[in-house]
Amino acid sequence: MPDLLQGIIQAIGLIFGLDPKVYEIIGISLYVSLIALTLSTIMGVPFGAWLGLKQQFFGRQLIVALLYTGMSFPPVVIGLFVYLLLSRSGPLGTLGWLFTPNAMIVAQTIMSFPLVAGLTMTAVMGVSPELREQLYALGATERQAAPMILYEARVGVIVAIVAGFGSIISEVGAVMLVGGNIEGKTRTLTTAIVLETGKGNFDLAIALGLVLLSLSFISNVLMLYLQEWSK
What is the homologous superfamily of the domain 2-230 according to CATH? Predict the structure, then answer.
């Protein structure tokens, strides 16, 4: 217990002492995760909204089943897929992205896209059918009605985006596999925690763990605030 308490005290000292190693890792983590979240939001929200609006077409059930499968897909398998895709002998090996932040962004985008799209679809499907009927009765086309329906589902869309962020900021297997956990280049909060714990640097590992918990807490508080604001 005294060792744990001492580790926490030292960890707090690293955070508030603006330790450059800690903030370098934080910067890389936020850079990779926020770009991946932006890409998955740009693609996932329109796709999920389209699935929520188009509830009857050939192949929809298969697409939804694949989307739900992607939401629970093991991240390390996604990392393996991206690794093989970007390796020298892979179809995209000429890009030279393996063991770079770009590879991590690709992996995290693939991970968060099904979650953002799936939860957006659920939110759009949860909009009252009466609203759709009223819009169509007023002469609105499907394209004209879509923005209003999506606006009504905005709380669910916010939850989808925050959930997507939470899923990638705390992921370790895929980013370690495709990023290589290179110091100063691809070392994120989660991969650094694994490494520093193995090395016995518990003060740094605890510091990074506290930062990770703080980011998760802030994202959830932001989600609750946006939910209240949107109402």
Answer: MetI-like (1.10.3720.10)
